[in-house]
TrEMBL record:
Protein name: Site-specific recombinase XerD
InterPro entries attached to this UniProt entry: DNA_brk_join_enz (IPR011010)
A GO term for molecular function: DNA binding
Source species: Corynebacterium pilosum
Chain residue ranges for the region called Disordered: 1-24
Length: 349
C-alpha cells in the first residue's frame, strides 16, 4: 500500500524542526556555563508576562542562553535577557513548554521580529542583534557572526590648551553650589586619573583606594573598569584631587561617585549635561575628551614615564592619539634625546 503524499503547499515536519528538535540532553546546562555568577544575576530579571511556570522557565532559559554569550556591561546584559525571555515565552505559549533549542532558529526568530508587526523599526534592530547573538550560541551556521566593516579612522579630538584644567578649577569656585561638587568630581577623575566620560559615570566609591610606597607615602588610586572587570589602576599624584576623591568615596560607600542618578543608574549623558548647565550659567564649559587628551599628552611628555606605562595608565591600545597631535608634544633636539637615552642607560646599568 502506498503512503499518502503530503498535501500540496504543506511542509514536512522534519523540514521545520530538523535542527531545532529538542534533544534528550540539552546543549546548554549549568555545567556548560562559563560564569555561574553572571547567570545567577541574569536570572533575577523581571518579565512583564502573567505569573506562572511558563514565565519562570522563560526567564531561566533566557538567562542561561545569554550567560553563554560574550560578556557585556550589566545594564545591556539584563535588557537582553528580557528580550530573549519575551521571545521564548511567546514561542512557548502554544506548547506550554519553554525550549530554547526549538525556538532559537533563524526562521522562528525572523518570524517573531518581522511578521508580528508589534515592534518599531528601531526595536527590531535592537532585538535582532540580541536574538541573533543568542541563536549563535546554539546554531552558529544559522547565525554567522557579522563581519566588521573597516572605515577610515577619524582623527582624535584636539587636546585642550595647557592651563585649561587650572582655569576650570578656578571657575569651580564661582559656579552655583549645586554644580560645584559635580564639576570638581569630573575634573579630578579626568585630569587626575585620565578617565573617559563613560568611566566617570561608572566609577564607584569602592574603586577609590590607596597604595603605600616604599617611602611610607600613600597615594590614592582609581580602579577603572571595562565590562565590569578592572582594566587599569591609575594613581592620582595630586594630593588635593586624591583627598577629594577619598572624601566622596566615604560619602557614597559602594555607590557611584557621580551624584545624579536616575533609578539608581547615572544618566548616560551626565557629563554632557553638566557641560550644558555650566554654559547656561555663563561659564565656558568643559570638553571631557579634549581634557583627557591633554592629560595623555602631558603624561607622554613627563620624564621617566615609559611607553608601556603610558599605555597602561591611559587605557589605550596604541599611540594614535599622540600621532594625531604630534605637533603639540615638546620639541626635542638630537642632544636632548641623546641625554635622555644616556640617563636611561645609567639607570639600567
Amino acid at each position: 500500500m502506498l503512503a499518502a503524499s503530503p498535501a500540496a503547499g504543506s511542509v514536512p515536519v522534519a523540514t521545520l524542526h530538523s535542527e531545532s528538535a529538542p534533544s534528550r540532553v540539552r546543549k546548554l546546562t549549568r555545567r556548560t556555563l562559563p560564569d555561574l555568577e553572571r547567570f545567577e544575576r541574569l536570572r533575577q530579571v523581571s518579565l512583564a508576562k502573567p505569573a506562572g511556570p511558563l514565565r519562570t522557565q522563560a526567564v531561566e532559559r533566557a538567562a542561561l542562553v545569554r550567560a553563554h554569550t560574550k560578556v557585556s556591561a550589566a545594564t545591556p546584559d539584563l535588557k537582553a535577557v528580557r528580550v530573549i525571555a519575551r521571545f521564548l515565552y511567546d514561542e512557548a505559549v502554544i506548547d506550554g513548554v519553554v525550549d530554547e533549542e526549538r525556538a532559537l532558529t533563524r526562521a522562528h526568530v525572523d518570524h517573531w521580529l518581522y511578521q508580528s508587526n508589534q515592534f518599531s523599526l528601531r526595536s527590531v534592530r535592537t532585538y535582532r542583534s540580541i536574538l541573533y547573538d543568542a541563536g549563535r550560541v546554539l546554531y552558529p551556521r544559522e547565525f554567522p557572526a557579522p563581519r566588521a566593516v573597516l572605515a577610515p579612522r577619524g582623527r582624535a579630538t584636539p587636546a585642550c590648551p595647557p592651563g585649561t584644567a587650572q582655569r576650570l578649577y578656578e571657575e569651580a569656585t564661582l559656579v552655583p553650589d549645586v554644580l560645584r561638587p559635580r564639576l570638581l568630581l569630573v575634573l579630578d577623575l579626568i585630569t587626575g586619573a585620565g578617565l573617559r566620560s563613560s568611566e566617570v559615570r561608572e566609577a564607584t566609591g569602592g574603586d577609590i583606594s590607596t597604595v603605600s610606597l616604599g617611602s611610607g607615602q600613600e597615594v590614592v588610586t582609581v580602579k577603572v573598569r571595562k565590562a565590569g572587570v578592572i582594566d587599569r589602576v591609575v594613581p592620582v599624584t595630586d594630593p588635593r584631587k586624591g583627598h577629594r576623591l577619598q572624601m566622596r568615596a566615604r560619602e557614597v560607600g559602594t555607590g557611584t561617585l557621580y551624584p545624579l542618578t536616575v533609578n539608581g543608574v547615572v544618566s548616560k549623558n551626565a557629563v554632557s549635561r553638566l557641560n550644558d548647565r555650566l554654559r547656561e550659567y555663563g561659564f565656558a564649559g568643559l570638553d571631557a575628551v579634549s581634557l583627557r587628551n591633554r592629560w595623555i599628552l602631558d603624561l607622554a611628555a613627563t620624564p621617566g614615564v615609559s611607553t608601556a606605562a603610558l599605555l597602561k595608565l591611559a587605557g589605550i591600545g596604541d599611540l594614535r592619539v599622540l600621532a594625531d597631535q604630534a605637533a603639540l608634544l615638546p620639541a626635542l633636539s638630537a642632544a636632548d634625546l641623546a641625554e635622555m637615552l644616556l640617563d636611561a642607560d645609567e639607570v639600567t646599568m
